[in-house]
Write a structure and sequence with these properties.
466 residues, alpha/beta, 3 domains, 4-stranded parallel beta sheet, 15 strands, 48% helix, nucleotide-binding, Rossmann fold
């Protein structure tokens, strides 16, 4: 398995710290609002990577944090006349609703920054004792110049970073690039007692501390959106490695931005879309399909046209699943014959190709293409004359390859079947009433859904077609 390591800017063979186990930290949301669809792409991407690693037999310890103390949260609490904790509690609950709606697996643990204040204070004290941090009037800053590797993730040295940065002048700092790891309390802000007076942690120190406490001094994978690579992840590396003297993460992974209608998402352009709003219009399988239809390191566009295309693709995949589900109940033979056993063995090529694509830096786009090749094959070769066992195993393979992508796990029975039967009954009544225009309209509607009607002496039957 190869992973593109943002730190070295090349694909590398994945070698875990401990055989068979993966320690993975993914930066989660700041919980002051509903998360938007751009965040959703990041969460879906790394959920998929986690799922695939589990599919390949790894035991994944997956940590995704909640930033529940931050300037944005303080401002939100002031706007709503409530507390930061109440804001955090509310939007953590809302996060779970939307993440569950997108079929994102729950993390092994979702730590809150405020649960680690004692550990963060200890972390900051350690950096001061080692000379990497200094206190000024209750604020504590990290000395970027003292850490020799600063800028390694972004691929620039400190001088170049400083020249290109827009930095607010703060005469209390020893150097303009120094950043706060502890912030003194301002009037009306929540605070915790510390050796430097009442205050709260800086954003970057929170993730460093939680990763260290929960996963160890060195972890396998640290991941997040591309926008976090600098300064957040760069600062995490500096803090963590300065304190421990050890490499913080062996592999860094970053997902690319999501554009909406070919424009960067922003409230000023009125193209800001929450995951919740997207889920009101489209099923989770459709949204996940679109998010995974391009490589995670390439910018992706999100539009209604592309969503409709993704919806049609998902329907095509589910039509194949529905066809197999129907065959399982209709075929007359139970067990496979020798020819079917040989055919089933030929389907293994799709699993092998799928793994080859996903092992190459999680190429979900090509993995999806393999899925379509598989359903073309089964649609042509698994028929009413096949055995029940072959139908079941073909269906199982489609679901198996869909599972790491978080799609194709639902049955087509139930609501869809009831809807189809209701439309057929409506069409039959229309024909009795000699309302042939309505009958033809219903037939066309069913055809658009991939449903073919068969008028037989025993009545109207239906089947899914590709």
């Amino acid at each position: 398995m190869k992973i593109f390591n943002s730190l070295t800017r090349k694909k590398e063979e994945f070698v875990p710290l401990e055989p068979g186990k993966v320690k993975m930290y993914v930066c989660g949301p700041t919980v002051y609002n509903f998360f938007h669809i751009g965040n959703g792409r990041t969460f879906i991407v790394f959920d998929t990577i986690r799922r695939y690693m589990e599919y390949r037999g790894y035991e994944v310890e997956y940590v995704q944090n909640f930033t529940d103390i931050d300037d944005k949260m303080i401002n939100k609490a002031n706007e709503e006349g409530t507390t930061v904790k109440e804001i955090g509690d509310k939007y953590i609950c809302e996060y779970y609703k939307d993440a569950d709606g997108l079929n994102i697996k729950r993390a092994t643990i979702n730590p809150r920054a405020t649960e680690f204040i004692t550990d963060i204070i200890k972390f900051v004290k350690g950096l001061i004792e080692k000379g990497y941090a200094y206190e000024v009037n209750g604020d504590v800053y990290f000395r970027t110049k003292k850490f020799e590797g600063y800028g390694q993730l972004i691929g620039q040295n400190l001088e170049d970073l400083q020249a290109g940065a827009r930095i607010n002048v703060d005469e209390r700092k020893e150097d303009p690039m120094d950043f706060a790891i502890w912030k003194a309390q301002k009037p009306g802000e929540p605070a915790w007692q510390s050796p430097w007076g009442p205050g709260r942690p800086g954003w970057h120190i929170e993730c460093s501390c939680m990763a260290k406490k929960l996963l160890g001094d060195t972890i396998d994978i640290h991941a997040g959106g591309m926008d976090l690579s600098f300064p957040h992840h760069e600062n995490e590396i500096a803090q963590s490695e300065a304190l421990t003297g050890k490499k913080f993460a062996n592999y860094w992974m970053h997902s690319a931005f999501l554009n909406v209608n070919n424009q960067k998402m922003s409230k000023s352009l009125n193209n800001f879309l929450t995951a919740r709003d997207a889920l009101k219009q489209y099923d989770a399988d459709v949204i996940r399909f679109l998010m995974l239809s391009g490589h995670y390191r390439i910018q992706l566009n999100f539009s209604n046209d592309l969503l409709e295309s993704a919806k049609a693709s998902i329907e095509r995949l589910y039509n194949a699943i529905g066809n197999l589900e129907n065959l399982i109940t209709e075929v007359n033979t139970e067990k496979m014959n020798d020819e079917e056993v040989k055919y089933l063995q030929s389907l293994n090529q799709y699993r092998e190709r799928y793994i080859e694509k996903m092992d190459d830096d999680f190429n979900t786009a090509d993995a999806i293409s393999v899925l379509f090749d598989l359903i073309r094959d089964t649609n042509s070769n698994v028929t009413i004359n096949s055995s029940k066992e072959l139908c079941e195993k073909a269906l199982s393979l489609i679901r198996e390859l869909g599972a790491p992508l978080g799609i194709l796990q639902k049955t087509t029975k139930g609501n869809l079947e009831e809807e189809i039967e209701a439309l057929i009954a409506e069409r039959q009544q229309a024909r009795k009433d000699k309302n042939f225009a309505l009958a033809d309209k219903i037939r066309d509607e069913l055809k658009a859904k991939g449903i073919e009607l068969l008028d037989t002496p025993q009545g109207v039957r239906w089947k899914k077609v590709d």
